[in-house]
Amino acid sequence: MHFLQVILAAIGLVAMVEAAKHQLIVGTFSTHFLYTIEYDDAAQTLELVKKTTTDAASSWIALSHDKKNLYGTDWTAEKSSFVSYSLNEATDIQYQARVFGEGDCLGVRSIFVAANPKPPYTVYGNYYYGNAKCGTVMSVHDNGTLKSVIQGYEYADGSAIHGTTFSPDGKIFYSADTTNNSLWAHTINDDGTVKYLSQLNWPAAGADPRHVVVHPNGGYVYTVMEGSSEVASCLYMNDKLYPMSQTYPLIRFGENATDFWSDEVALSASNKYLWASNRAHDSSRKGYISAIEVGADGKLGQQLFLAETTSSGGFANAVTPSPFDDTITVITDNSTGFIEMWKMNDDKSGATPVARLDINDGGGCCANAVWYN
């Protein structure tokens, strides 16, 4: 009897540990706020716990490696720039610095920011619209706050990079060039600056890579195609990217890819699944969310489902998988402004929203989300 009580108590303790409240931070496109959201995975609820006023509208935000700093774009700035906040906790967000682009980068809009999780923890900024072929590498102070531009570099005429990521060892920098329909690889030097390595011109016209993510083994690179509404993968070897022949649709058979513009691709907590999302141009239509199986070697397997989202997504419909459960992802909407938590069905045949939080701030919310804990 005592043994049974011990077992039951242990099971209860595990359940209590697994059931927790998790905090996220959400950016905006055109309003000067950052939102701290709390997700209760037992009650399956979302709650707004803090609205922080900022001096930037960050259409993309990224955490530092230690989650003590948050970096953001400024979507509405007259001069393209990137902002830096200190994080004492998810509800204590303090503005610290702003770093401006240089040269031609000043005349375009900052669109994406990424923080290298490996020393020297440099931060990389990219641009869109106008002459957006440049990229910016920024150093950080010892506390992680943005310090200064240490390199301005260029891609190619007509380039506009919408998403970037790093190899697992932080030595390769990958860029998705939407307007030039290509993927780039740069080596990262010891000081964080980059050097051109290779460019893959995508073999299918109009595919338009938007965002990119790398498997932890470093051998496979995944990208979401804004133009063709699909997910594709590449094999990386000998300093070059080689496209795999199989792609995965983010629209249903018979639908026109030009009615959509795919948004995001991201790996689940233990890299079992690749989540992806699509947006609809027409606000009266709905976007899509999908998950694809990922093998232990990084090779993509079966597409598990393609489900309609609850809205068009506006500028967003961005998925950010949870760091604690492969089957859970947050998705942000900008058509009316809300955050939803989605959970994969037990049989993996689909996914449904289990929680929703509406944030009507005049059309700014919601851009992407990051999981703080």
Topology:
Layout: H1 2-18, E1 21-26, E2 33-40, E3 45-53, E4 61-63, E5 69-73, E6 81-89, E7 92-100, E8 109-115, E9 123-128, E10 134-140, E11 146-154, E12 161-166, E13 172-177, E14 182-188, E15 194-201, E16 209-214, E17 220-225, E18 230-237, E19 240-243, E20 248-249, E21 264-267, E22 273-278, E23 288-294, E24 300-308, E25 318-321, E26 328-333, E27 338-344, E28 351-358, E29 369-371
Antiparallel strand pairs: 1-2, 1-29, 2-3, 4-5, 5-6, 6-7, 8-9, 9-10, 10-11, 12-13, 13-14, 14-15, 16-17, 17-18, 18-19, 18-20, 21-22, 22-23, 23-24, 25-26, 26-27, 27-28
Number of strands: 29
Amount of helix: under 10%
Structural class by SSE content: mainly beta
Largest sheet: 5 strands, antiparallel
Unreliable stretches: 1-17
Measure the end-to-end span.
38 Å
* SSE series: HEEEEEEEEEEEEEEEEEEEEEEEEEEEEE
How many helix segments?
Answer: 1
Radius of gyration: 20 Å
Overall average residue pLDDT: 94
Query: Beta fraction of the residues?
Result: over 45%
Shape call: globular
